[in-house]
Amino acid sequence: MDNIAIVGMGCLFPDYADKEKFWDRLIKGETFLSRDSFMGKPIERSGLPRSGSEAFFRGRLSDQEIEEFDRLGELFKWVAYVTDEALKESGAAGDAGKLKRTGMVMGSVAMTMKDQLDAMYPFLTATVGKEVNTILSGYAAESADGRFRHTFVRQSENLKPESLLADTEAARLVAEKRGLGGPVVMFNAACASPLYALKLASMYLNSGEADMMIAGSHCSNETVAGICGLFDIFGVLCGVGESVPLDKNTKGLITGSGAGVFALKRLSDAEAEGDKILAVIENIGWSNDGGMGAGVMAPAAEGQLAAYRSAYSGGLSKELDYIECHATGTIVGDQTEIESINRFFGEGARRPLLGALKGSTGHFFTATANASIAKLIFAMEHEVIPATVGVKDPLCDRIVLTNTPWKRGKKPRRAGVNAFGFGGINAHLVLREYQKARPQSGLAKAKPQSSLAVAGTQNAAATSPDEIAIVGMGLHIGGFDTVESFMKGLTLSKKAFTKPDKDRWRGFETDADYLSALGFRKMPEGAYINSVNFDFMRYKMPLKGDPYFLRKDMLMLDVAAEAIDDAGIVKGLSPNTAVIVHSAPDYTDQLFMASVELNDSLVKSLEDTCPDLTAAQRDEIVKILREDEEARENSDNVQGIVTNIRGNRISAHWGFAGPSFTLFDRENSIFRCLEVARFFLNEGIADNVVVGVSSLSGELEHLYTQKELGAMELLLERGVAEGAVALVIKRKEKAL
């Protein structure tokens, strides 16, 4: 990887901390946390609550844009603000010529957000009302007349349907409004997303696809279940004062929200154009655990070591002054990270100092590493490393416990940033202080020539001299469950259409009043997938309760297996394989993500519309509804809500140690996946790349979303298409 210059930065961290507020609190040892409670348990959290939005953004965004974004959701404001800050600092804001050659890579948590729940309130209201009235039919006749009416209290009203696409459309719309003419990529690499964003952006710069890239990520985690419920199920949500990263007595993590981006240029260009260079990215190493951990959610020192080796390949010195650790506060995770650092960097006096900020900021998953990078940039500027707060019994003796001087010297200061995510996604960034007198890297390219393109994008005219071969295929679309059955179907002019089974819509499709409340004329025909012939034993996936949230993982694994077998890849023998998958937005976790908000409004609605029910009867109704959901909600099944896990399961089963992540680009996703895969093959990052796309779009929540987006008539005309496709590709010269 050629040296990359950071020439701009945009920060929006918990408690609406901009760059100045962020550094001020860090250096003072203050936190960004607030008190809350979950299921009666006092907890700490960090975030960007809607209540602070107006005061922060008024004057930072135009009144016209605030009005526009108010109808799209808070995330649009976050992305616009951090992008503007990075563009201003880079000197490119308002320069049409520079912006035309600027792209964006944006990581996303890709889980249901508070604004999306508000946009779905008619669906939530109708569905909960239907279920409660069904339960009421078992009570006294006077309570069984269907008169229960559910009122879901919204935080935001008058949201446009496009708010349901915030994970992709926020970045796309902001890039368009700011005049960015380069590639726009949205993805999820769990907690490693910020570093993966920088790495992917660097590829676009070094290939000549862009002259500047805005790279970073966001994480909107403002629903109570999203903040607390998911991680309570995983067993890592802890009480007040119990999350102390890098301390032997830490008991878990603090969750939150935030966003950050960086403006990147080729170092040679930044120097030639006289830019203020905040820091230099020497390299970013990445890897996947490849099944080396105790499970897909457990950390593995070997996978982290692979990321270090990737970062320092080619003779890059591993002599660092400091490492900003991933350290979330889970004791197993923190201990594993210290182990991997000791093994790679040594345990003597030359080992770098260590620290972590999540005890101050909380952990906003796909975006926290942006804060880690910002911390290092400010530490270099101000010549001091902030203390790691709260540590009383440190895991090792190199942890920075007080603000520590970090003075400029003859040699440039160097530091690392760790980011290790769910599913075994690992990344390590090597950051260097910029010194003007330092000679340019011999690898620097003045003006690389574009060689990669995505069909249907601004860069589609570019061609690549490197031919890529498809060496394996897998497919399941509707009634066609293999490539062979698909080809036979085409030969016989047979449709993939199937009838949805009786459990598909829980019998709601026969209730005319319910369908009318959702605005449905009728249910569409289509190529529905009612079941996957999934081998739980082969993939060693535990089965507890209802595996509903795992259905996309099961589908993608099954289809990937056909492609990988077709390619002749043997489990454990092709570690240098990357996995890039696309997964359509999943709205079927709405009831889980809204469970706490729904519980409060449900109790109030029962009191208001069914006053004849006793308190005991109301409690029983709530209990029945929760029991139906709890069959799906255990630590094994809810992993399916975490979108990046989908590709990581493929890596874990076959022992693939190359980068693995999920891309989001709607209908263009397969082309974007192939574009990035070609980068990997041409640059020698991987010998093989598994590319996959999947969509289960026939659920009630998806159909309602498509109706809101104006696509229902098209679905009624052409039908719903559910399915998955996987390809294994490699360089043609290697395939022959």
**What structural class do the secondary elements suggest?**
alpha/beta
**β-strand number:** 21
Q: How widely separated are the two ends?
A: 28 Å
- Report low-confidence residues grouped into runs of 5 or more: 439-446, 449-464
Average pLDDT figure? 90
- Please estimate the helix content: 25-40%
Number of helices: 27
**Main sheet overview:** 15 strands, mixed
Name the strands of the widest sheet in spatial order: 10-9-13-14-8-1-7-6-4-5-18-17-19-21-15
Shape: globular
Q: For the CA atoms, what is the radius of gyration?
A: 25 Å
Strand content: 15-25%
Which labels suit this protein?
736 residues, 37% helix, 15-stranded mixed sheet, 27 helices, two-stranded antiparallel ribbon, alpha/beta
Tell me about this structure.
With 736 residues, this protein is of the alpha/beta class. 37% of the residues lie in helices and 17% in strands. The protein is built from 27 helices and 21 strands. The strands form 4 sheets. Strands 10-9-13-14-8-1-7-6-4-5-18-17-19-21-15 form a 15-stranded mixed β-sheet, sandwiched between helices. A two-stranded antiparallel sheet has the order 2-3. The longest helix is centred in the first third of the chain and has 17 residues, at 74-90.
List the helices and strands and how they pair.
Layout: E1 4-12, H1 19-28, E2 34-38, E3 41-45, H2 53-57, H3 63-70, H4 74-90, H5 96-100, E4 102-107, H6 114-119, H7 121-136, H8 166-177, E5 184-188, H9 193-207, E6 212-219, H10 224-233, E7 258-266, H11 267-272, E8 279-288, H12 301-311, E9 322-324, H13 331-345, E10 353-355, H14 358-361, H15 368-382, E11 384-385, E12 404-405, E13 414-421, E14 425-432, E15 468-477, H16 483-491, H17 512-518, E16 526-527, H18 536-539, H19 551-566, E17 577-583, H20 590-593, H21 595-609, H22 615-630, H23 645-654, E18 660-664, H24 669-682, E19 688-695, H25 700-708, H26 712-718, E20 720-721, E21 723-731, H27 732-735
Parallel strand pairs: 4-5, 4-6, 9-10, 9-13, 16-20, 17-18, 17-19
Antiparallel strand pairs: 1-7, 1-8, 2-3, 5-18, 6-7, 8-14, 11-12, 13-14, 15-21, 19-21
Helix pairs in contact: 3-4, 4-8, 12-13, 19-23, 21-22
